[in-house]
Amino acid sequence: MGSLENNKPTVTVVVATYNGSAYLLAQLESIAQQTHKPTQIIIIDDASSDDTLIVANNFAAHHPEVMLVQNETRLGYIKNFEKGMLFANAHYIALSDQDDIWMPNKLEVLISAIGDQMLAYSDSELIDVQGNLLHQKMSSIKNQLAYHTPIMYAIGAWAPGHAMLFKKELVDKAAPFPTLVTHDFWLGFVATCYSTVVYVNEPLVHYRQHTQNAIGADTTKNKSASLTLAQKKQNARARMELLYHKVKETGHQHAGVFEKINNSYQSFSLVNNCKRAKLFFDYRNLILAYKKKSALLKILFAVKMFFKID
Fold first, then answer.
1. 1, 60, 91, 215: which has the fewest Cβ within 10 Å?
2. Cβ-proximal residues to 62 (8 Å cutoff; 6+ apart), any chain
């Protein structure tokens, strides 16, 4: 754990890179210019083949707080972020994509907001490839809000890693990171097993959108289009089982709810279908809190779960 300098909490920023030389310098400069200075910046490169390492090395030469780590072979973005987080030595950790731009007060605002909770995140403004505002926020696509129970993560969430700040102890509770879900989903989900995920209703990141985004804001893209129906069902069952076992491990009061949902995912028997639809109906306002759905559409979603699993 990092020491406190002038009674200010220390922060490690983990920047995961892969062939990101085009936008990396602007992002690194926005991190270095924070009003609450990070005490450590970890740039962890996932075997880039472009000029990313040149940009990173040039930046590190002028910033002694930078730690540059190079992977010999690709780990993928989830395990790359995890590796970077495990190197962190500060009280707080913030994750950074290689192509965004942070508002100067991002760290300061999130540190002020997090309080005794495990994790806080903010809204973001979308920008295009050239950095122009698209006049759209992440909160205008889906609801961004505080998450106070893991049930709110049962089928999805909208708390992105690029806007997060969390306590280092959360990494210890979350590791090893599964690859079945994204690293930021897992961080937020595990955080709700112990505390509330705080939401700051202020855009603190300019979130760049382009065709090379590992995870973008475009929810119309079907990332599982190549999977068969059987594979999608298998993944959904595996994901729910993963969530259930983690909630059970933490002893959260809603572990029983996850057990019932997990059991209902195991087959499409009439009994399981009825149980699943009823569970989603009973908890529809929590499970679907992040989706912009009317009261009627939430009920229809619960009915849909009689016929399928998400």
1. 1
2. none
